[in-house]
Amino acid sequence: MMKKGLTISMIFNANSANYSEGFGNISTLKKLHRGDGNTYTYISRQAIRYSLTETLGWQDTPVSVEKTVAQFSPDATIDQYPEIDFFGYMKTKAKEGADTRSAVCRLSHAIALEPYKSDLDFLTNMGLSKRVGGGQMIAQSEIHESLYAYTLTLDLDLVGIDGDITIDNIEKARRVKTLLNGIKLLHRDIKGRRENLSPLFIIGGVYDMKSPHFEGRLKVKNGKLETAMITQVLALDEVIAENTEIGYIGGVFNNDSDIEALTPIGIGAFFKALDQKVDDFYETN
């Protein structure tokens, strides 16, 4: 089978979608600092994976406990459970060592494209507290609504293969397209809210090179998507330009005309085009 990699980088909008440990009565967002002096919130790749498998109903892989460590059951196999087919596993048995499978689907953190400005939400629990004659029970949560960018990469030639197990190509294609549909309709439940993580802008395709070509290349400044950087990536190699699709929802950014110059298609059309590329790959291998 030919070595092929699928990679997509995308932008979505979300509000306060991943909290850290916190302290006292303050819930803190996951954050990182950049050389520009600003602080940016992020949604960890683990959180995105959790929301993706939850969206797809893939959290049924059996789990066992080995010496107080929760792990996937040694009896779980990739032909039965897509979760461990795509995201890998480590299974350990006493005196037998570890059996591992590397992830064939890799996610990056979703990093905010707009800086965090230390906004706080002031909360009380008066609704319930008053029922029992209590006080206000004050709490605070950091809040940040921003555009976020992240990348998914997938080794198409490694899907459905694990030791003696090989899934047929029809099922491989179905699984990959199911995964992509989950990305298209992705959401995240957090603190009583359901955040829509569906892409507003997406770029990528299927390539001979298994490189995340557009990772870290999606930038927004003053509400404008920096299309010059995207154009430069497309110009790196004609193979990149020939195999890249761009999907886009208008009215999100302040420079629609610049984005239209990249000849984008709709988000739905983008995923249909990617589905066809997946079918073409598995039908010819």
Automatic annotation (TrEMBL):
InterPro entries: Cas7/Cst2/DevR_sub_I-B/Tneap, CRISPR-assoc_Cas7/Cst2/DevR. Coiled coil: none annotated. CRISPR (clustered regularly interspaced short palindromic repeat) is an adaptive immune system that provides protection against mobile genetic elements (viruses, transposable elements and conjugative plasmids). CRISPR clusters contain spacers, sequences complementary to antecedent mobile elements, and target invading nucleic acids. CRISPR clusters are transcribed and processed into CRISPR RNA (crRNA). This is Type I-B CRISPR-associated protein Cas7/Cst2/DevR. It comes from the Bacteria. Keywords: Antiviral defense. The gene is cas7i. Pfam families: DevR (PF01905). NCBIfam families: cas_Cst2_DevR, cas_MJ0381.
